[in-house]
Design brief:
Order of helices and strands: HEHEHEEHEEEEEHEEEHEEHHEHE
CATH class: Alpha Beta
Number of helices: 9
Radius of gyration: 20 Å
Number of strands: 16
Bound molecules: adenosine-5'-diphosphate, N-acetyl-L-glutamyl 5-phosphate
Oligomer: single chain
């Protein structure tokens, strides 16, 4: 006869097995497919979480998915700017980027955050290679402003992606590597010619453009909230799934950092990505739960036909 403790242990073991078995159809379905994972600066809360993120990426790689990491670093840029005595200013969720701020953005994204993520992934083996949008013509961008109260507002060296040349990423994936991308992009002018400037591209926006260009099966965005709330900040209003059309209707009412994030999900799904999701990067392994469980976690954006 089993004791209560033994029965509990058996049930816990069966739960673990059930979780693994639930993942099986998803592992089969995603074998060989590209997933773009956007890791937001606000989700890089501590080393334990960063390590859990690196484990998840290496896990994806080893079950046959081809992950491409696109990272942010907004709070990390803020702290360098603060040390330099430069004020951080955001309009419409985008950083007003002076030439001095642009130097700091490039240093932090490509030189610090990207390097740290590459190092954490490579603690598991020689997988990750860091790239910036400047490398091998990966990204091209043009300057954008934003409209506030009907007025066009200049944001300085802020860009939107106008071209993606994913060859360098494809080469790395073919070689069994994990590309880690920072979202600094060379500027192109109205005629498509390269200028001498580089632009600061919001990482959500760049991740969506890359997911579309790479024909990704998923865009997963890790941030510092559980997902999209219909009535922010009411924590009972978390949306678990919505269609692209429902999101399009909701976009004008969103605020702050959620605007580029949800616009990115919409761009990805409109551009052929099967599903885009916003998940809580403060919860270890949330990305695996999103990708390999039937219910997922966080907020999923799906095309109309999947609803
Ligand atoms: N409707 C909403 N649902 C969820 N979060 C929202 C909403 N509106 C605004 N937010 C804010 O957006 C933030 C996420 O954006 P951001 O700070 O830019 O994240 P990241 O650094 O991950 O890109 C949340 O922490 C939250 O404060
Ligand atoms: C134009 C613009 O706002 N660029 C962002 C780029 C980094 C980013 O997007 O980081 P998160 O994902 O952590 O927010 C910035 O300068 O903060």
């Amino acid at each position: 006869m089993s004791t209560t403790a033994e029965v509990r242990e058996q049930l816990a073991a069966q739960d673990k097995a059930a979780t693994l078995i639930e993942a099986l159809p998803w592992i089969q379905r995603f074998a060989g497919s590209i997933m773009v994972i956007k890791y937001g600066g606000n989700a890089m809360v501590n080393d334990d979480l960063r390590r859990a993120f690196a484990e998840d990426i290496v896990f994806l790689h080893h079950v046959g998915v081809r992950p491409v990491v696109v990272h942010g670093g907004g709070p990390q840029i803020n702290s360098l700017l603060e040390r330099l005595g430069i004020k951080s200013e955001f309009k419409g969720g985008l950083r007003v980027t002076t030439p001095e701020a642009m130097d700091a953005v490039r240093m932090v994204l490509t030189g610090q955050v990207g390097r740290e993520l590459v190092g954490m992934i490579n603690a598991h083996g020689p997988y990750a290679v860091g790239l910036s949008g400047e490398d091998a013509g990966l990204l091209q961008a043009t300057r954008i402003g934003t409209v506030i109260d009907g007025q066009e507002v200049d944001l300085g060296q802020v860009g939107e992606v106008t071209g993606v040349n994913p060859g360098a990423i494809v080469d790395l994936l073919e070689a069994g590597r994990i590309p880690v991308i920072s979202t600094v992009a060379p500027e192109v002018d109205a005629d498509g010619g390269l200028t001498s400037a580089v632009l600061n591209v919001n990482a959500d926006t760049a991740a969506a453009a890359l997911a579309v260009a790479l024909g990704a099966s998923r865009l997963v965005v890790l941030t510092d909230v559980e997902g999209l709330y219909s009535n922010w900040p009411d924590k009972t209003s978390l949306i678990s799934a919505l269609t692209a059309g429902e999101l399009r209707d909701m976009l004008p009412s969103l605020e702050a950092g959620m605007i580029p994030k949800m616009q990115a999900c919409l761009t990805a799904v409109d551009g052929g990505v099967d599903r885009a999701a916003v998940v809580d990067g403060r919860m270890a392994h949330s990305m695996l739960l999103e990708v390999f469980t039937t219910a997922g976690i966080g907020t999923q954006v799906v095309p109309e036909e999947q609803a």
